[in-house]
Amino acid sequence: MVDVILGLQWGDEGKGKIVDYFAPQYNIIARFQGGPNAGHTLYVEDKKIVLHQIPSGIFHQDKINIIGNGVVLDPVTLKRECDTVASFGIDVKKNLFIAQRTNLIIPTHRALDKASELQKAESKIGSTLKGIGPAYMDKTGRNALRVGDLLDKSFITNYIKLRLKHQKLLDNFHFIEEISAWEEEFFEAIEFLRTLNIVNGEYFINNKISEGKRVLAEGAQGSMLDIDFGTFPFVTSSSTISAGVCTGLGIAPQKINQVLGVTKAYCTRVGGGPFPTELDNAIGERIRKTGNEFGATTGRPRRCGWIDLVALKYTCMLNGVTQVVMTKADVLDAFEELKVCTAYKINGEEKAEVPFQMTRVTIEPVYKCFTGWNRESTKIKEAVLLPSDMSTYIAFINQYIGAPVKYVSNGPGREQIITL
Ligand code: GDP
Ligand code: IMO
Ligand code: MG
Fold first, then answer.
1. CA dihedral 337, 340, 346, 349 (to 10 degrees)
2. Best mutation site among 4, 136, 138, 270 for ligand 2, i.e. most ligand atoms within 8 A of its Cβ?
3. Which of 114, 115, 134, 223 could form a disulfide with 315 if both were Cys (CB 3.0 to 4.6 A apart)?
4. Distance (Å) from CA 283 to ligand 2 centroid
5. Is-contact 236 7, C-beta < 8 A?
6. Which tens digits make up the pLDDT trace of 224-254?
7. Which letter does DSSP use for residue 302 in this model?
8. Does the model's pTM come out above 0.90?
9. To the nearest whole number, what is the mean pLDDT of the chain?
10. Largest CA distance in the chain
């Protein structure tokens, strides 16, 4: 069977840590969408590591890690990540597998991402500029090069054709980017990629499932950044929700069992777009500082705000969440008062649904206030020892979203997690 861990907000919920924590219970850990826009932080031997494309199970020696066909893969970032992972004594040539149908990000995708953002000016998405949007456009536009193509002699010819196509687009944008250094790195990385385990991902994973192996699918980004159901157009370009697991790995829906949704105890967003509970004030600043809310991929300060239960209930519905993991509860340790958003006031009316187009309406969040627990929680190991005010906060969230918070993460470390 396949279980899923994915983000329920706008990304950076702490998925990497949670996947690393649960990885020992599985045989295979698989990424099914996204690409180097992701930044998943884990601590191994007290060292901080940020993974972008390699699944967060890679630090467990005996686990198979798969990059699935739904991912857009940047070989340059991959090579760098593999070097980091190898420095911990992990043999990527043994533990990492890449699906042939995985689409490649080529240097001109990054240039196109930049050009597109520049043209959008004020309404820019705040893309990570890793080439994600243009790479998925080439996938749906049926132009893309895929990992399996690397093994064919026509690769270079097809690469040049695609680059030419991109050059025309860049000319239309009147955008000039010197990509020769990127190309040099790209071709070096391509040679490295050819030496890795390139497999027929859908057969590989289904055969393992038939053998009774347990698969953990790791989401990237968050459900509110989903291409269909997120705050479009301020979203990423892939299906970040549980449905994406099927198309991103080639497995049937009935194979999916548990869906663990990860949410912070508050909320953050990086990049542009609507964020109803954003605190553009001293409280937001305090959350950012305490939670060290700076992007793992781009270093940008993350926008911070109170937890948004309207959005959370929506993403639990979209994903069929069976259990919730609440991370960064410790960040709220020293707050006297906490708020949770229970409704959106739009044109004077209270709504409990996420509107079609958040950018076209003014949303005033309706809050319920809670007393903060005002106690350090990072050393707590058992649920019974959690502050009662934290339990009250969690109980309200459980009841509102209709899915149980089963785990509370109270620090970035591997061992800082409590089962409720
Ligand atoms: P991801 O993209 O969902 O994997 O999340 P990121 O790695 O981008 O951001 C989460 C950040 O919070 C990382 O710096 C983690 O080390 C850190 N983190 C994860 N869980 C906790 C937690 O429970 N408490 C604290 N204080 N930090 C956490
Ligand atoms: P993880 O997996 C947070 C955001 C960008 C931008 C929008 C589109 O670490 O949770 P893109 O580069 O995909 O075209 O950017 O999505 N974004 C993320 N925000 N965490 C992420 O990944 C993100 N990946 C993309 O900031 O607003
Ligand atoms: Mg992240």
1. -90
2. 270
3. 223
4. 24
5. no
6. 999 999 999 999 999 999 999 999 999 999 9
7. P
8. yes
9. 97
10. 65
